[in-house]
Amino acid sequence: QVQLVESGGGLAQPGGSLRLSCAASGFTFGRTPMSWVRQAPGKEREFVAGISFGGGITEYADSVKGRFSISRDNAKNLLYLQMNMLKPEDTALYYCAKGRQILLQKGDYDYWGQGTQVTVSS
Length: 122
Known about the structure:
The chain is mainly beta. It contains no helices and 11 strands. The termini are far apart. The mean pLDDT is 96.
């Protein structure tokens, strides 16, 4: 069955960095677009970044452009999110999400992981 396991979250200071990873199994990872989404307490889940199945196309939420970078290693079935210049408003539970279709479609997912908590605070 499909499994998505996130790791790498934790506590970071404002201006700091974290790198999230998502280990995928149970589907053809190299033919599936993937995304990172996040949910802060009391807020709706929101798109953070997405990447096409080959890695050649990426999309970012305006709030993270220039600070976050999404990448993937299809040989290892791993998805990454490099987060730099972190801000307190980046505090949220971060999930990796499996795209439903073969093309990257923001918001169109069929599986999510359990999430990894990112807290940005001094």
